[in-house]
Specification:
The protein is an alpha+beta fold. The protein starts with a helix and ends with a strand. Strands 1-2-3-4-5-6-7-8 form an 8-stranded antiparallel barrel. Helix content is 25%, strand content 45%. The protein has 1 helix and 8 strands.
């Protein structure tokens, strides 16, 4: 009986780990692409190689790398010209073609719609 319970726990743990890995992969692939802010001209584009490029409403361009943790938070690392790095963390939520970024340090919420990438 003990071995059966242990086996069931092991199987459930393996399936849980596989599900979590699947969710993380989906989050990353769902993020990939070009997004435009719904109330402005700002664009953010996420690439498969974990880099991003953003152009704000004033035309200023910033780029860097990003990562996604297991809680669905995205971390942006921006490299400045003087080699200093700026870290920005946000909670990301994606539903179909809409992405919402909630920046924990400021409470700011930004909404984006997925758009066709330039070819």
């Amino acid at each position: 009986m003990f071995n059966l319970k242990l086996s069931i726990h092991c199987i459930l743990w393996i399936f849980g780990a596989m599900f979590l890995t699947s969710c993380l992969h989906q989050s990353s692939s769902a993020l990939t692409g070009k997004w435009q802010e719904t109330r402005g001209k700002a664009i953010i584009e996420f690439f498969e190689n974990r880099t991003f490029k953003t152009v704000d409403n004033m035309g200023m361009t910033v780029n860097g790398t990003y990562s996604i943790n297991d809680k669905g938070n995205v971390r942006f690392e921006i490299k400045h010209k003087d080699d200093s790095a700026e870290i920005i963390d946000a909670k990301v939520s994606i539903a179909e073609d809409e992405m919402i970024l909630l920046f924990g340090d400021t409470g700011e919420v930004e909404k984006y719609r997925k758009v066709e990438a330039d070819h």
